[in-house]
Amino acid sequence: MVSLWRFISLKRFEKEKEHFSTEKWRRIFLAGVILSALTWAVTPCMFFISGDFTYQTITAIFIAGLSSGAMSSLLPLLRELRIFLTIILVPLILQFILQGTSIHYELAAIISLYLLLLLYISKIFNKNYVDSIKSQLLYQIKLDELSRSEQKFETIFKGVPIGIFFYDNNFIIKEVNQEFVYFLEAPRNFLTGLDLNTIKDKRILPTLQAALEGIQGFYEGEYKTLFAKKEIWINMTTSPLRDISGEIIGAIGIVSDITQRVLAQQHIEHQANYDTLTDIPNRMNLLKDINKEILRFKRHGRIFGIIFLDLDHFKNINDSLGHNIGDELLKQTAKRLLDAVRAEDVVARIGGDEFVILAPDLSNNEKIAATHLEYIALKIHESLNMVFEVEGYNLNISSSIGITLISHDTQDADDLLKHADIAMYQSKKEGRNTTRFYQSEMDNWVKRRLEIENELRQAAQNGEFEIHYQPIVEFATSEIAGAEALLRWKSPKLGEIFPDEFIPIAEESGLIFGIGEWVLKNAVEQFTQWQKRFPNITTFRKIAVNVSSYQFNNKDFLEQIEKIIKSSDIKANNLELELTESIIVKDIDSVRDKMLHLRELGVNLSIDDFGTGYSSLSYLKKLPFTTLKIDKSFTHDIQDDVDDKELISTIITIAKNFNLEVVIEGIETYEQYFFANEKRSKYLQGYYCSRPIDKESFSLMLASSNGICDKLF
Ligand code: C2E
Ligand code: CA
Ligand code: CA
After folding, report:
1. Separation of 608 CA from ligand 3 center, angstroms?
2. Is 681 helix (H, G, I), strand (E, B) or coil?
3. Residue 444: CB partners within 8 Å, gap ≥ 6?
4. 331 close to 400: Cβ distance less than 8 angstroms
5. Which residues are within 5 Å of ligand 3 (an ion), measured at CB?
C-alpha cells in the first residue's frame, strides 16, 4: 500500500509538477520514505525469533541489504537517506540488545557502528554525487550559452557586408562568418583550417602578422583570392585576441570587398582626368604633368617642350558633315598623334580640336631641345597630312602647330600653354599647316590684338571708317555691273589697318555687329546716290556687301536688312550679301530658312571665297545662293597651273548647273583675264580692272567711262 501510494505520488509529480512547490513535493517524498522505512522496520520486529540464530542472521542480512540499496537510491537526498537508514537499522540494533547475550551485544555494537559509518559516508557520497550533477547541469548551461552566443555572432555578422575570420598563432583559420565565405567564393570547409602561410598573395601577410604581434594591422589594396583566383580590392583590419591572462591566442580579421567602390572611384577619377571622346588626358591632367616637369626642370635643368596643335578648318568638317564624323576624326587624330610621338610624351586634348603634346626630358641644351621638338612637329604634320577615312569620306586635314620651351622666365603651366597657343595662332596666321616657335615678340602681337580691339571700339563714332568700292565687271561687255564694298580703317593711333587683320578681332570681340550694320547702311546709301546720279548707266545694278558669319547668325539680322531696305530707296534685288561657308554654325536647316527669307525679300546671296573650304559642293545644292565667287587663290596661278584651270572649269560647270552666276576674283593681269575669260564665267573682279577705290574715285570712274571698264579694251 505504501509503495502504491508512493507510485501514485510519483505519477502526480511527473504530471503536475507545478501543482505544489518543490518544498511540498519534498515533504511528500519524505513522508513516503518514512512510511516505507517504517514498513521495512517491522521486519526485525516480526521475523526476529528469539533463540533462532538463523532467522536473526537472515533478518540482519536483509536489513543490511536494504540499507545499502538505499545508499544508492536515496543518495541525492541526504536527509531522507539518513532518516531511512536510522529507521530501518535502529529496531534491529534494539532487537539484538534485547536478546541479552554477549554475542548479541557485540552484534548490536557492530550494526551500530555500521549505521554510524553509513551516516558518515552517505554525507561524502552525497556531496560527490550532488557536485557531479551540479557540474553536469552547469556544463549544459554553459553549452547552451555558448551556442546562443554563436548564434548571436552569426546573426550580428550575417547581414553585415563584412567578412570576419579568426586565426590562431600558427596562422590557421579557426572560424569564418558567412560573408567571408561569400566574397572569397570558397567553401567554408576550405577556409576553416586553412593555413594562411600557404596563400599565394603575400601582400596581406604583414597585416596578419601585425595582430599576432599585438598591434592592429591594416591593409587596403588589391588581393588575388586563392580559391576563385579573382582579383578583388579589399580593406582589412586585424586585431589581436587575448585570453584572460592577456596572452595573445590568435587574431580576428575584418575584411570588406571594396572592389565596386574602387572601380567607381577609378571611373570618376578617370573621367576627371581623361577626355571622354578620345580617352587621352584632358587639360587638368596635362597641367599636373606640366607642373611635375617644371619641378624637374628647376631641379635638374632638363628642358621640356609644349606642342600646341589646332586642326585647320575643323569647324567646316563638323558643321557640314556632322558631329559624328567630326568626333571620329578627332579620335583618329588622337591615335595618330600617339603614334607619332615618343612613348614618354603626353598627348592631351584640351578643347574642341586643340591638342597639346608635352615632350618631357629633352635635353639640358635649348638648341638641342628645340631640334627635337621641331622633329616631333614634323612627324605630326606628316602623319596628319595623310588622308583620313571616316565613314566613307576621305578627309584631308592639316594642323597649325605652336611650340614653346620651358625657360627660367616662364612662370607656370598656364603661361606655357598660353605661349604655345600664341605660337599656334601665329602659324594659323601664316597660312596654316605650319609650325611656329614661341618668341617673346609674339607677346607683342597679342598686345597688338588687344590694342586693335581697344581702338576699334571708338572707330565708328570717331569716323575712322571708310568704304572702298571695287567694280565687278561683266566679261562679255566690260560693263561695270556692280561694286563690292570693302571696309577701310585708318586709326589715328595705329595707322591704316587692313580688314584681314581687324575683321577677325571685331568678330571675336563682338564689335562686328555694329561695324557690319554701319557698312551695310553706308554702302546701300552710296549705291542709291550713284543710281540717282547716273540714271543712264543702267547696267550698274548691284552693290555687294560682305557679311560676317557672326553677323548673319545674329537673331536680329533679318530685321536689320528689312529696315535698311525700307529706309532707303534701294530695290532689294540691287543688294547682294556676300557670305562664306562659315555661316553654317549649327544646323544647315536654320541657315537655309534665313536665306530663303532673304531671297523672298529679293536680296541676292553670293557665296564668297568659294573653294577654300571643304564642304562647298555638298551644301551648294541645299542653300539658295544666287552667285558664286571663285576665290582669288585659284586665279593666282591660273595661267600655268593645270589643276587650278581644271578646277575652275569644273566649278563653273557645276555653278551653271545650279543656276548660279559666277564671279572670278583676283584677276590682276592680262594673262589671268585671258584664261578666265576662256572659262566662260560671267563676271570678274580684280586689280586688273580696278583696285578698291574710295567713293569719290569710283564716282569719277563711272562718270568718265560711262560705266565701262576701259582697261579691258
Ligand atoms: P574678300 O571678301 O574676298 O574681298 C576681296 C579682297 O580681295 C579685298 O581685300 C580686295 O582688296 C582684294 N582684291 C580684289 N582684287 C584683287 C586682286 O586682283 N588681287 C588681290 N591679290 N587681291 C584683290 P580687302 O579689302 O583687304 O578685304 C579682305 C577681306 O576682308 C575681304 O575678303 C572680306 O572677307 C573682309 N572684309 C572687307 N570688308 C568687309 C566688311 O565690310 N565686312 C566684313 N564682314 N568683311 C569685310
Ligand atoms: Ca567679298
Ligand atoms: Ca572673296
Report:
1. 5
2. coil
3. none
4. no
5. 608-609, 665
Nearest bound ligand to the CA of residue 689: 1
R_g of the chain computed on alpha carbons: 56
Helix, strand, coil percentages (3-state) for the chain, rounded to 5, are 55, 20, 25
Q: Quick check: CB of 498 below 6 Å from ligand 1?
A: yes
Q: Is the CB of 609 under 6 A from ligand 1?
A: yes
Polymer length of the chain: 713
Q: How far apart are CA 121 and CA 114, in angstroms?
A: 10
Is 499 a pocket residue for ligand 1 (Cβ < 6 Å)? yes
Quote the cell numbers at residue 515: 561695324
**Ligand 1 probe mutation, 518, 546, 684, most atoms within 8 A of CB:** 546
Q: Which residue has the cell 530707296?
A: 569
pLDDT band for position 586 (cuts 50, 70, 90):
low
Distance 667 CA to ligand 1 centre (A): 13
Distance 425 CA to ligand 1 centre (A): 21
**Cβ neighbours of residue 83 closer than 8 Å, sequence gap 6 or more:** 30, 33, 34, 37
* Range with lowest mean pLDDT among 41-50, 295-304, 615-624: 615-624
Q: Which of 533, 475, 465 is nearest to 499 (CA)?
A: 465
Task: Please measure the distance between the N-terminal and C-terminal CA atoms of the chain and give it in whole angstroms.
Answer: 163
The strand pair at 346-351 and 393-395 is best described as unpaired
Contact between 606 and 577 under an 8 Å Cβ cutoff? The reply is yes
How confident is the model at residue 393, as a pLDDT? 87
Separation of CA 700 and ligand 2 centre (Å): 23
Q: Which residues pair with 348 in a beta bridge?
A: 356
Give bridge partners of residue 355 from the DSSP assignment. Answer: 309, 349
d(CA 31, CA 559): 124
Question: Which atom of ligand 1 is nearest to 519's Cα?
Answer: 41
Q: Output the 3-class SS for 36-73.
A: HHHHHHHHHHHCCCCCCHHHHHHHHHHHHHHHHHHHHH
Distance CA 438, CA 421 (A): 9
- Percent above pLDDT 70 for the chain: 96
Measured between alpha carbons, how far is 146 from 19 in angstroms, rounded to an integer?
A: 33
**CA dihedral of 60, 61, 63, 69, whole degrees rounded to 10:** 160
Contact (CB, 8 A) for 471 and 541: no
- Sheet (strand 231-242) strand order: 173-176, 163-168, 248-257, 231-242, 217-224
SS (H, E, C) 107-147: HHHHHHHHHHHHHHHHHHHHHHHHHHHHHHHHHHHHHHHHH
451 phi/psi in degrees, rounded to 5: -60, -45
Residue 496 Cβ contacting ligand 1 at under 6 Å: no
Q: Which of 470, 472, 486 maximizes ligand 1 atoms within 8 Å of its Cβ, making it the mutation to test the pocket?
A: 486
pTM over 0.85: no
- Whose atoms come closest to the Cα of 519: which ligand? 1
Residue 362 has pLDDT above 80, yes or no: yes
Using the 8-state DSSP alphabet, how is residue 365 labeled?
S
Per-position b or e across 177-210, b if 16+ CB within 10 A of its CB: bebbbebbebeeeebbebebeebeeeebeebbeb
Cell for 37? 522505512
Alpha-carbon distance of 286 to 413, in angstroms, equals 9
686 Cβ inside 6 Å of ligand 1? yes
Please determine, for residue 579, whether its predicted confidence score (pLDDT) is greater than 60: yes
Phi, psi angle pair for 437, to nearest 5° = -90, 145
**Beta-bridge mates of residue 310:** 354, 400
Report yes or no: 168 and 152 within 8 Å, Cβ to Cβ. no
